[in-house]
Amino acid sequence: MVTERFDILIVGAGPAGSFAAERLARDGARVALFDGRPPGEPKACGGGVTSKALKQWPHLLEAVGRTVEELEMYSPGGKMLFLKLEEPFAIYSRIAFDSYLRDRAGEAGAHIFTERVSFQPRKSEKEDWVVRGQSGAEWSAPLLVAADGAGSRIAKLLAGALPKEEMEVAFGYRAPLPKEESAPTVVAFLPGWAGYAWAFPRPDHISFGIATSQDAFDHQSLDELLWRFMVGYYRMRADGTARLWKARKKDKALDELIETELRTKAERYAARIPGLAAKTWDTRRACGEGWALLGDAAGFADPVTGEGIYYALRSAEIFAEAYLSGKPLDYEARWREDFGRELRRAAEMRRRFYGNFWGAPFTERMIEFARAHRGIRKVLGELVAGDQGYVGLKRTLARRALRPL
Prior knowledge:
Layout: E1 3-5, E2 8-11, H1 15-26, E3 31-34, E4 48-49, H2 51-56, E5 65-74, E6 80-92, H3 94-108, E7 111-113, E8 117-119, E9 129-133, E10 138-141, E11 143-146, H4 153-159, E12 167-175, E13 186-189, E14 195-201, E15 206-213, H5 219-239, H6 252-265, E16 267-274, H7 278-283, E17 287-288, E18 291-293, H8 309-324, H9 331-353, E19 356-357, E20 360-361, H10 362-372, H11 374-385, H12 393-401
Parallel strand pairs: 1-10, 2-3, 2-11, 3-7, 5-13, 11-18
Antiparallel strand pairs: 4-6, 5-6, 8-9, 9-10, 12-15, 12-16, 13-14, 14-15, 17-18, 19-20
Helix pairs in contact: 1-3, 1-8, 5-6, 8-9, 10-11, 11-12
C-alpha cells in the first residue's frame, strides 16, 4: 500500500486541530487533518467562547451560536447574582462550532480524513511519523501534532500521562428549551463539591452540565445533583420562583412532572478535561523534535473553570506561527510567555477558589460580596467573559473594592 506523505499530520479536528490546520494550509503547508469522531457526536462542553476570543478572532461570530449579554450566577447556598456583561460572550453547539472550523480548514487547503488513526513511535528523530487508518491507509510526515483531547494517546507517549488528580470530569445532558420564552444562561456553584453546574441555551436546545475534579468524582451523587439543578431550572421558568437547589414540599408534584418529561428527551454526554497543578506547568512540555501538542492534549485548560476553547485556539495559532517562521521548537517558549503564567496562576488559585473563606465556601462569599458591591460585581463579570485574568486579579479586586459604591 502506498503511504501518502505530508508536511504535518494533525490528529484531532476539534478547535485546536482545525484552527492550526487552517493557518498552516493557508501559508502553503501540506497538512493532513484527521477527525476520528463519529458524525454528530458532541463533546461534553458548555460551548462557551469568551469575549476575549471573539475580539481576537471576530470571524468566530460567523458560526451559528448565541450571544450572551446577561448571566445568572448562583452560590452553593442558592443566592442569585444577576450579571449584565459589558462584553458579551457566545455559546455554540460543539457540533456546529467544530464543523465550522473544520470546514474553514478544508477551504484553506488542508486534507481532511474522517478516520480514527493509530500510530507507532519512531525509531529515531530522523524518521517520519506514520499513522494508519482503520481502512488500512497510511500517511506520513516529519511532524506529528496531537490535538485529540485530554485523553490523547500521543500526548501520553510523548509528554507523559497526567495523574488522576490533575484531570477533571465534565458530563451533562442536551435537553429541550423551556416552553416559556425565558431561557437564561446560568452558572451555579455546587453545594458540597468543588466545581459548578451550567445551563447554556443554544438555538435549538439547552446544554446542562457539571464540571468537577476526577479524584473526587462520584457519578451517582453528582448525577442526582445535576438532575436537581435541571429540574430546578425548568421549575423556575414555570412558576417564576428563584429556588434552584432546594424545592418546597408543594413543588414535589411539579418537579416529578418535569423530571419524567426530561428523562424521555435528555441526551447524555461526558468527557475529561485537564486541570494541571502548578508544579506540572513548570515541567510538562508541549513540543519536542518532530512533535507538538495543542489544546486539551497539551493540558491547556483553565484549572478553575475547565474552559479550554480560547487556549485551544491560541495554542494552535502560536504553534502555526512558530512552524511557519521555521522554528517549530520555539512553540514551547512562545506559549509559556503568552498564556503559561495565567494558567499556572489559575492552578495556584483553584484550591482556594473552591475552599472556605470566613466560615463558608469562597464561592458563597464571592456571590455575597458581588451582590453588595458594584465594583466586585464588575470584576466577576469580566472574569466570566474572559477579559480579567488571574494574574493581577487580587490587585484589580482591591482597587475596585476601595472605590465608592
